[in-house]
Design brief:
The protein has 394 residues and is of the alpha+beta class. The chain has 17 helices and 14 strands. Strand 6 and strand 7 form a beta hairpin. It is globular and about 75 Å long. The N and C termini lie close together (10 Å). 41% of the residues are buried.
Length: 394
């Protein structure tokens, strides 16, 4: 029962002969506190249950969808903690021109906890403590493009979820490999390699949206050009890799109502087509006009252009653009709409689409975390029984 309580289940005793379980709808809630306020995650156990019966019921409850949702509250907190630390490190940079896929600066990889296993910086694994290796991205001088940035954010999320001691003990160096996505497939990577296990494939977020708000927590994805590469002007911004850090109730409901991201791909196309009717002065013009809402730029538009601008504003007012927060290296945590607008400046000749990447957050990584916590609990939890065979809930 210890792990159930850690997840947020409220366990009480009852004189009834059968357990009473109220799972509720925790995936729809803003937080664990909100879920408990709605009386989700409640279980009443018969007083006569012995230790074996308690543990059997606990094992069954841990496999319920409600327990996955409770875990996702923790995963969301871990994602926000990890991405905040990555964003705060001015030494972790993105440079279009660099020697190798990942660059560890003057100190080199070994001094910062990593060992190269592929040439040209295409593959690295920790060479000592896992948590020390992640510290290179929290506080070291490191460079990478946003694909590695997404990998690092995913691994750092696991670090924050487990805590350093358990993170160092539970994962091998090979499981924490970073590099090109193709490289990871040939490793033991927990993200894309042989230890990844069971993937949750939901590119357009149809199933994720149906599961509810918290199902988006920590999910990796990418924003990618729709037209052929010949329509790209900035190859370094042909795609943006992200992890989701937060989503409002309004945004989650909008995604559920529209059945995922396909609807927003169509809106992206409309925004792009309308932007073509506005003057493009280069630089950060659309970012200033549409995201920062620069008044000086706006008043310069003709009445017809003002009408077009109003149409774009109305589309971007959708809560998915304003209240779905994503982390992209090296832009930090920003709303989805910022990136759609920014790409109008970087690659104005193509619209962009939004997809979730393959991930195992709800499958293999959830089960691994449960197993790790159960092993940890087994080393510390003792069962206190009374003379009449009942047990202490405290």
């Amino acid at each position: 029962m210890t792990l159930l309580r850690e997840l947020g289940w409220q366990v009480t005793a009852t004189d009834q002969r059968e357990p009473m379980i109220t799972a509720g709808s925790p995936c729809q809630r803003a937080s664990l506190v909100d879920a408990q306020a709605h009386h989700d995650l409640r279980v009443q156990l018969p007083r006569y249950y012995d230790v074996a019966q308690r543990e059997q019921l606990a094992a069954e409850l841990l496999q319920q969808p409600a327990s996955l949702c409770a875990y996702l509250f923790k995963l969301g907190d871990a994602t926000r903690a990890a991405t905040a630390r990555l964003q705060a490190n001015d030494g972790y940079r993105f440079t279009a021109v660099q020697m190798g896929w990942i660059g560890f600066g003057m100190r080199g990889a070994n001094a910062q906890g990593w060992q190269r296993f592929r040439s040209f910086g295409r593959g690295y694994a920790p060479n000592g403590s896992n948590s020390r290796a992640l510290d290179a991205f929290y506080s070291g001088q490191v460079r990478s493009e946003c694909g590695v940035g997404r990998q690092v954010a995913q691994l750092a999320t696991q670090r924050e979820l487990y805590g350093d001691a358990l993170f160092d003990r539970e994962f091998t160096a090979g499981e924490l490999s970073i590099g090109t996505f193709l490289t990871l497939h040939d490793t033991q990577s927990i993200l894309l390699g042989s230890r990844a296990g069971e993937f949750f494939a939901d590119g357009k977020a149809v199933r994720t949206a149906a599961l509810g708000r918290q199902a988006f927590m920590a999910a990796p994805g990418f924003i990618e050009h729709v037209f052929d590469k010949r329509f790209l002007d900035d190859i370094n911004n042909q795609a943006e890799n992200f992890v989701i850090t937060d989503i409002s109730q309004d945004a989650a409901e909008a995604l559920a109502r529209h059945g995922g991201f396909a609807h927003y791909d169509a809106l992206n196309r409309q925004i792009w087509e309308l932007s073509r009717q506005l003057p493009d002065r280069g630089g950060r013009h659309f970012e200033r006009l549409l995201h920062e809402r620069d008044r000086e730029l706006r008043v310069q538009l003709s009445p017809q252009q003002q009408a077009t601008l109003a149409q774009i504003d109305a589309l971007l007012a959708d809560p998915v653009y304003r209240q779905l927060q994503i982390y992209v290296h090296d832009k930090g945590v920003r709303p989805l709409g910022y990136h759609i607008v920014r790409l109008l400046d970087r690659n104005p000749r193509t619209p962009f689409s939004i997809d979730l990447a393959l991930h195992n957050l709800h499958t293999t990584l959830f089960r691994r975390w449960l197993d790790a916590r159960l092993r940890d609990c087994a080393n510390t939890v003792t069962h206190t029984t009374h003379g009449d065979g009942t047990w202490n809930l405290a």
